[in-house]
Structure formats: structure tokens, C-alpha cells
Amino acid sequence: MNYGYYPGCSLERNAAAYDVSTRAVAAHLGLGLDELEDWNCCGATEYIAINKLAAYALIGRNLALAQKQLHAPGNGRLAADGRAQLVAPCSACFLNLRKADRYLQDDETLRTATNEALAAGGLRYDPGTIFVRHLLDVMVNDVGFEEIKRRVTKPLTGLRVAPYYGCLLVRPRLGGELSNAEYPTELDQLMKALGAEVVDFPLKAHCCGGHMTQISAEVAYELLRRLLQNAADYKADVIVTLCPMCQLNLDAYQSRVNQHFGAGFNLPILYFTQMMGLAFGLDEKALGFGKEIVSAAAALAKIGEPPKAGAPARRRKDDKALPMPGAKP
Amino acid sequence: MAERIGVYVCHCGSNIAGVVDVVQVAQWAAGRLKHRGVIIARDYKFMCSSLGQELIEQDIKELGLTRVVVAACSPHLHEQTFRNACARAGLNPYLCELVSIREQVSWVHTDKVAATEKAKAVTSGGVERVLWDEPLEPLRVPIHPATLVVGGGIAGIQAALEIADGGHRVYLVEREPSIGGHMAQFDKTFPTLDCAACILTPKMVSVGMHPNITMMTWSEVEKVEGYVGNFTVTVRQKARCVKTDLCTGCGVCEEKCPKKVVDNVFEAGLGYRKAIYTPFAQAVPKYPVIDRENCTYFQKGTCKACEKFCPTGAIDFSQQDELITLQVGNIVLATGFDLFDSRRIPQYGYGRLANVFTSLEFERMCNAAGPTNGNVVLRDGLTAPKTVGIIHCVGSRDKNFNNYCSAICCMQSLKFAHIVKERTGAEVYNFYIDMRTAAKAYDEFDQRVRDEGTHVIRGRAAEVTDAARMPGEEGKLIIQAEDTLIGRQRRIPVDMVLLAAGLEPRRDAKQTAQLFGLSCSADGWFIEKHPKLDPVATMTEGIFIAGCVQGPKDIPNSVVQGAAAAARVQGRIQQKEISLEPVRASINEHRCSGCRICNNLCPFNAILFHDDRMVSEINPALCQGCGTCVAACPAGAISGTVFSNEQILAQIQGLLMLNLNGGRVEELVAA
Amino acid sequence: MTEQFEPVIIGFTCNWCSYRAADLAGTARIKYPPNIRLIRLMCSGRLDPTFVLQALASGADGVMITGCHPGECHYLEQNYKAMRRFLLLRRMLTQMGIEPQRVKLVWASAAEGARLAQEITAMVEEVRALGPLNWGKVEVPAFSPHPSSLKEEVPA
Lengths: 329, 671, 156
What we know:
The structure holds three protein chains of three kinds.
Chain A: E1 2-5, H1 16-29, E2 32-35, H2 47-50, H3 52-70, E3 84-88, H4 91-106, H5 108-119, E4 130-134, H6 135-143, H7 145-151, E5 160-163, H8 186-193, E6 197-198, H9 212-215, H10 217-233, E7 238-241, H11 244-252, H12 254-261, E8 269-271, H13 272-279, H14 297-300
Parallel strand pairs in A: 1-2, 1-3, 3-4, 5-6, 5-7, 7-8
Helix pairs in contact in A: 1-13, 3-4, 3-5, 4-5, 6-7, 10-12
Chain B: E1 5-10, H1 22-32, E2 38-44, H2 50-63, E3 67-72, H3 75-88, E4 96-100, H4 102-106, H5 112-131, E5 139-142, E6 147-150, H6 154-165, E7 170-173, E8 188-189, E9 194-195, H7 196-209, E10 213-216, E11 219-227, E12 230-237, H8 252-256, E13 260-263, E14 271-274, E15 276-277, E16 289-290, H9 296-300, H10 305-309, E17 322-328, E18 330-333, E19 337-339, E20 356-358, H11 359-366, E21 387-394, H12 409-424, E22 427-432, H13 442-451, E23 455-458, E24 461-465, E25 477-483, E26 488-494, E27 496-501, E28 503-505, H14 509-516, E29 543-545, H15 555-575, E30 577-580, E31 585-587, E32 607-610, E33 615-618, H16 628-632, E34 638-640, H17 645-655, H18 664-670
Chain C: E1 9-14, H1 18-27, E2 36-41, H2 49-57, E3 62-67, H3 78-95, E4 103-107, H4 113-130
Parallel strand pairs in C: 1-2, 1-3, 3-4
Helix pairs in contact in C: 1-4
């Protein structure tokens, strides 16, 4: 299967590890990622609030480029429904692209204005021609857990992983997202397929604070502390993310959070594609390890250790515990 | 002889007259349709009132009307009313047409001119149709005096007892091994807090001992044939593997059975039962059943512990399912509800967080005969909670799941608050959206529970989490909710969470509806004939509904409906026969070419073919009047009463105003 | 401003589902355009294709056929027969040069008042866009004679 690939600005700089690991894993799985030529920034989360038309033109330009490149005759990238698939690994880019496609479809005035703006650059976008997908969705639903399990050569046994989705991927519901907005489980299942011990991370879809670190640092620190505290309470060795913003905040601001609250968190924050590459036995250097600020070396050394949680104790005769819902006797 | 038609246009107060110019419609009919036989057209405030009806009767008598058209509400509401009026005046009731200018015109359109024009067209359609109406006699069908009641919950029990007390035979079919339904699972009933078993078991025993009730538990209806008055029902009596004539209900088999299974039905998954079991001690009948899927003998071929220990030799592994055919005149469906699956709201943690319980689990927990002997404890089975949070409206009043209110959860949650306080002294927090306690003595109960010190927080809970954020939250379940009365987010740490899960139609409600030929609402509840005036009858004659199958309701209302359905059935039985619409098809033998196209179209096998004469014939006793064969006959040899080709074709032309004096073209030019 | 074309649509309804859906739309005061005029049948299976042709020939611009959802027929399975007839009829109408959008089959249960109203609104707009059918334009057919003069002579 071939996809258009929109890396987004973060993946060129702070999230370079995400980019290289994505490319490495995709190549390993035989997914064709065809990077958009001459793509530009998606405008991130704020721009829509500042200047709507400019924001939609900015996002629309990427969609128009995708339409031009992916719908070019004979490139074989069209899905059965006639749409071309564009993959974005960054949750903010994904949401912006998906949202723009939908809103341009629904709002005729906006569509006309945006296309007028795009026409200045000789471009045009017809909403509905590009199906924007997040990388996790592609891995889970197109590649599938079975295929992923089959590829695992170095299971992540012994590593306790807190799967962290953040908020931009799961909401708003524009169609085609993860199964549940409040408590998604796709990343959990993916990590399980890689052999990791998955922590039932209650804050998995809570906000990391986003750009609050720049606007109101204290608010951001509290949000980050909750996430780190919760992961630490659950004895996670690493937090696995799928969003450059979440990774940056949790990783780069971890020492500030420690300072601010007098805490001692030491949780490496890794991308799920890095974990996939690791389990597939790919070269660690090619997966961008070492670029993280909180070092993952100590945590990764645990891989291969026997699992901490032993087999559940056999039920004793005098055990009065009530069965859990859906339990087999 | 030319027909003499009277047209009556109803104002229905302002319901019709507010949108349709009824006076104009009447005048128009009198003038423009005069040549079609309309000799009088009147408008009147309420045609269905006795004065309105007398108007028609008087005109029939004084003006010698031979046909009547009433333009008013839906025929499903008042067709019978106006037919009766005609009959009283000596006109055959089937020479009266009621056309709807309320439900299909004034209530759905806003443009007054266009609505008035449509009302004229609809009236014109009625006038053309009535010309082809034939005088008919209603079909009379005898009513078999036996009744089938499906579902042995409180609604079904009530219906069965009332009909049986009236001296008529009742077959009560129940899917589970015992009757009792959900009510048998409860501990206390609101608002009086009397014990559910104490008031239910005597009724169950009465059912079991009633000479007029044939109880068929561990059974399911498999096929329903026939129509009102004479249904043939096939019931599958599942193999109990216990000979009921020998079993004394001593319970030794259950004691000796080595196989323990989680009981997901009666114990709501909170307790265990054996592979051979009676669901609960007061079960009626007292005979156990073997659950073949879990029985060691049926799965592995060895064990037979129950057989070895049975003192009367009542165990019979070779028993087979039995198909039993019943003849009944009426059917009462009381198949109840299923609980909303709380796992569908993952942020409430049910199934993930051990100390989150559903309402039904908690009912079993506080029941003295339940898995914890009535002790309110955490999932470990030992620890009493110090704080309990109760979340209302789980899966109800929520666009993501069910839009409707489940009606019982507020009172049930308040009841839980009271029981928790009484048994453990814990602090209780109820999270509600609106407190709905609208019935006799319900609101007083709400006041009482609040006076007992239960905290009530108005706000839908956002999530239940074990992620501690603040000191004091460690090791607790935290309920986060916006307290909308103080406008603040609150986090309440508790030991135990109870989810007041909503009521949903049975998972197989759709199949049940198809089996009995009923329809379901968009939510899946069975549709009653009229939501206000006929809540227990259905669109299918002879089939009644009672209890939660019709919509969420509490015990008193289920009992009321059970009794109401019984009253309706008894009325039918008393009358001994029922009049039905004479909508039937018949074949004109002279025109039938014997092509047999119609033969395979009839799902009721009402059409038989005479090999000797090479013609088909319709058996009027089997024909249900759908008219499919009428439409299919290439020779036009089949005609259907009340919906004949002539009537429909004439109505089409009338609706399209082809009958106007002077022609439609002129009318169009004039407009 | 040019006057908008107002199509006339004849709707056939089933006594058990769609007629009740229409009643329900009324009770719930759901609005739809007044361009549709409904005829009640006992079942969509009663629909003789002649009715559709007659309606179109007599000046209707479109015909909506409604019945119970598949599997929910009051007479077990007659709505399937209606569907078969509908598909054949539509093919025939296409051959006669009539746009297939002018004849529509809609399933509506007794609970689906809102849905029926929605379908009617959509169809009115669709037929409005198609313009008048003008099938019976040449001449208004003579209206059927009075039934009393037309009683069928049955050979003895």
C-alpha cells in the first residue's frame, strides 16, 4: 500500500526521531511513504484562531499539493473509494488536515475563498479527494496486529509502557478516528503486540498542555506533573507517544517540572514507531534513539527481563472476592 | 342512479382551520365537485363531537346521502367513529371515507394557500374513491379462549394471574428456568423499601399453583402462525435434563455438582452457580435445569455426580428439546429489558476498575440471599466502603448511547444511597443530571434520603479514575464532575462507584418483534397502538404488550400494564368473537386463466388451485388482505375489497384533480 | 422573479408502517413540502405498477412508494415483492424516457416520521430540479365514467 506522507515541521527538527523511525518502520513493513513535494507548515493549533482564511489557505495548500501529486495519473495511490491517502504522524498536523478537508466540504464560502487564495499559486483543492490518516491508524488498521506480531523478533518483554494518546488525535470526532475518544485502546494493543507490559494509563487521552508552556508555564507544569505522576504511580518505565508536541512537553520540560514541584521524575518519552523498530530488531541508531532529553538507555536495558507481575494467584477456597465483570470462573 | 355524496370538512378547533381554509375547501367541494355527486359540503368545528356526528346522520336521513366523505384526522383515529355514525343513520358504514387533512396537511405544512389546495386535492381524492366503495359487512372471527403470555417477569405474572383468575386458560412461557424476572433479583423496592421477594414470591407461587395457568419455563416461542382469535404458537421446551414428575426440588444435585460457573443472568455476574441449578431458592418451578454448555458430563462425557446423588432418579441426560404447539386467541408480550452494558462508557471504568459496580450487581450484593449475603463490600468481598459514589443516567439521556430517560434510575439510585448508609454508614455522593422522582411518594423518598445525609451533586460525572492527582486521592476511585449548582469542577474520592445503568430493549427484541409481527421504535421498544389512549395494544390485532418491553418503567407501572393487557384480553374472550375489516381478495373464476402467478405470492397459503377447473381460488378464512395477488394478476381476475383497483385509480385521478368541472387545465389557468 | 416549479408527487403508503409514519410526522409537527399527496394501501405489495403509470399519466411529476423495512412486513414478506416490482418498473420507465429519480422506493417504519418527512423533502427537491414531467400534457384524459354506469357484466 502506498501513502502520501506529510511529515510536518516538528519532524524535521525536535521530532526527528519520529521521522526517521517512521521511515525505517514503514520501509521494513513495505509501506510506501511518498513525501509531499514542497509542503509547508500546517499552522499548528493557534493559527485558525488568528486568521481563518490564511490558516485554511496554509492547510489547504498542503491538501492541494497532495491532490496534485497523489491523484496524478498512474501513480497507483488511490484507495477503492477513489480517495488518495495522506498520512500524518503528528497529531496536530493530522487534525488540521482532517478538519480543513471536512470544513471546506461543509462551508461553501470558505471553500470558495480558500480556493481563490490557492489559485494565486496555481493550486486548487476539492474536498473529499484526500483521506487524511494518522500514522497510528494506518499501523493498527491497515498493517494490523497480526502482521505486526509476526514481524516482532525482539519482543519488548519486561518493559512497562504507558501508552499516551494526547488529545488531538481522539477529538473532535470527524469520522475515522480511533475507536473511543475517552478511552482509546489502539496504542495499548499495539504495544502488547510488541510484547511490552502495558500499563492501564488512566490519563492516556488527557491534554499535555500544548503551547501552555509558552503562555502560562505553571498551568502546563501542573498538567505535565499529573501525567508523569500517574505514569510513575503505575511504575511505567517509559511513556510512549504518537505526537511531537506531547513528546516535547513531557521530555524537554520534565526537569522544569521536577524543579517546580521538587519531584524526581525520570521517565523517558519515546515514539511508538521507535518501539516498533526496536521490536522488529531494526538498528537502534536508525530509529533516532539518543535524541531524547531524558535518556532511555536505562529503561531499554530492562527489555528481556522477566515480567514483574507474576501469574495471578490461584483462587483459594475461602477467597471471598467477587468475580470481575465478564470473568470466567 | 347517481350517488348523493356529503362532504364534511372538520376544523378540529384550530388544528386544521389554523392552516387550512376549511370554509373554502367545503365551498369548493360543493361547487366544483357537484357534477361528481357532491350534493352537500359542510365545515364544522369538531366533526367527531356528537353534534358533528349528528350532522352527518341528519343529512343521510334528510338528504338521502348514499356516500359520505369526511376530511378530518387520520383514519387510524376516527374512521370507526364516522362509520358508526353512518351505520346509525342506516348507511352501510363502508360507504364512508375519512381522508386526513390534519396529520398529512395542516400539521405538516405552513404555507396556508398551498395547504388549502392540498386539502382540496385530498378531499377530491376521497370523493372519487367513495364512488367506488362497496357496501360490506365486517368479518367476524371467533376468539379462542386461551391466552399466551410471553415473559414471566412481574408484568407477565400479573397479566397471567388476572386472566387465569377470570377463569381462562393461560400459557406462561419463560426463557429462564424460573419465573420472577428482574424483580426477583432486587432486594428492596422503592419508595416503600419493602423486600422484593416478600411481595413477589407469593405471586410466583400463585402462578405455579393456579389451575388455569400452564407454566412453561426454560422455553422459548419459536413460531407464531395465524391471526387474532386463532394463533397457533410453537414453543420450544428446552431439555431440562430433569424429570419434573420425579424431582422433589431437594437441591442435592446442585450441592454435589462439581462445576461452578459465574452466574451472569440471575447474579448479574457477581456470584456463582452450578452447572445444574435453580437460579434462586424461591424459584418457581423448583426443578433445576442442566446448563449443557458448562456441564462436565455434556462437555467431557464423565461425571454424572447429580445422577448418582439424586434420591429419586430424576436426572435424565437423554432428554431432548420438545416442540409444543398451542392454540390461543390472544398473546401478551412481556419480555422485559436488558441492562445497558456499562463497558460502552470506558471512562467510567466498569470492567477495568474493580470497585465500579453496575446497579444490577449492587441489587444482588445488597440482597440477603445474594453472593455477599447482603453485605455491602468492595470487590475483595471483605472490605466495607467508607465512601460511595452513585452515578445516575449511565447510558441514558446521552446522545452517544440512548436519548431516552430510563425512568427508574433516579429512584433506584436514591434507594441505593439509603441502603449503603443503612448498612455501612458510608458517605454517599449521588451525581445526577435532573432528579426525576415524579410518582406517588417518590419525591418524599428523595427528601428522606437527602435528610439522611446523602450528598447530591448536580452534574454528569465526566470520569471515574484511579489516577490520584491530589493528596487524599491515593488508592481511591476519583469521580470527576462539574457541580453545575456551584459552577465548579469537583473531584470526589470514593471507595466504591455504582453505575445506574439504563434500561435497553432486549438484545433480541428485533427478532421477537419479527416473530410476532410487531414493530419497534427507533430505540427498539415495541410500539403500542396509541401512546396515550391504547398503550397496551399493538398494531397487530390480538397481540398486547406489557411492562418494559414497551418502554422503561418501574414495578408499579409494569403491574398496571400487565393488568391492563389482561383486561383487554378478557374483554375479547368475553365477546367470543371480533369484527375485522373486510379487506379480502377474491378471484373472479370467469376471468382466471389459471396461470398460477398468484399461487406463490401468498405467504399465508390462502390461494389454492383447482386442477380440475384450472382456476385458482382464495380461501377467505386464510386471506389477510395484503393485496399482493390483486396487484400481480395479469388478467385482472383478482379483486380486493376496500382497496380495489377502481378505488385506487379513482383516488389517484381525484388527487390530481382530473375530476374538476371544467377540467384541470382551466383550473390551472385560473390559478 | 420566475415562479418556482411546484411538482406534484403521489405517495403510496403501507397501512402498517409508512402511513403511520406520516401520521407520526403530523403528530410531531415535522414540516415537509405540500407537494406530496398520499394514498393508503394495506401493503406495499398491493402496489400495482399500473397505479404508478396511471399517476404519471394523469399529471403527477413523481411517485413515491413506501413500505415496511425488509424483514418487518406486516404480511411477512410482501414488501420484497414490492421491491422486485419497483426495480422492474423503474427499468421500464427508463426505457420510456422517464428519469428514474421520478419514482422512488422508501422504507419507513411506523416510528420513522422524521425520516419519511426527510425523504419527502429530498424527493420534492429532486423532482423540482428535474422539472415537469408533462406526460399527460397533450390532452387531459377523459375522466372515468361514473361507476354506476359501468358495472361489470358477468357472464352467467
